[in-house]
């Protein structure tokens, strides 16, 4: 990857995605012998696809994934990992934990709403 970025006359940074902006690209220009010129993203993409690493990546991605060669537990066989009942129990347990943590607030707000209800009924 570093060779590709040097071919494009840009210095390698931690995040290569930073060099695509017109404003930011000039500070990464590595070739001091030639004046800076903006390299559009489309040119970078085409050059990367023609570069050795890009060709290898394209070849790897073009071959379909063989599901039979992977571990059976590595792929999800159902739409959701938990059943609806397990999901309901987990959400209920989480809500009960939050209620326990904020018990004072729940008791106070319940008494406050109850007091307003009694006042509104008598008026």
Descriptive overview:
The protein is mostly helical. The chain folds into two domains: 62 residues, no CATH class; 43 residues, no CATH class. Helix content is 56%, strand content 0%. The protein has six helices and no strands. The longest helix has 20 residues. The chain is elongated, with a radius of gyration of 30 Å. The model has no long low-confidence stretch (mean pLDDT 79).
Question: Which structural class best describes the helix and strand composition?
Answer: mainly alpha
**Main pleated sheet:** none
List the domain count as a whole number. Answer: 2
Mean residue pLDDT: 79
Kindly estimate the percentage of residues that lie in beta strands according to DSSP.
Answer: under 5%
Distance between the termini: 77 Å
Number of helices: 6
Structural shape: elongated
Query: Count of DSSP E strands?
Result: 0
Low-confidence runs of at least 5 consecutive residues: none
């Amino acid at each position: 990857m570093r060779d590709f970025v040097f071919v494009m006359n840009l210095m390698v940074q931690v995040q290569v995605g930073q060099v695509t902006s017109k404003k930011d690209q000039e500070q990464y220009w590595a070739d001091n012998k030639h004046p800076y010129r903006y390299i559009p993203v489309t040119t970078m993409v085409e050059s990367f696809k023609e570069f050795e690493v890009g060709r290898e990546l394209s070849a790897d991605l073009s071959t379909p994934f063989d599901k039979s060669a992977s571990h059976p537990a590595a792929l999800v066989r159902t739409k959701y990992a938990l059943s609806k009942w397990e999901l309901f129990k987990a959400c209920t347990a989480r809500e009960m934990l939050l209620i326990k943590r904020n018990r004072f607030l729940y008791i106070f707000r319940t008494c406050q709403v109850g007091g307003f209800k009694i006042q509104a009924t008598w008026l």
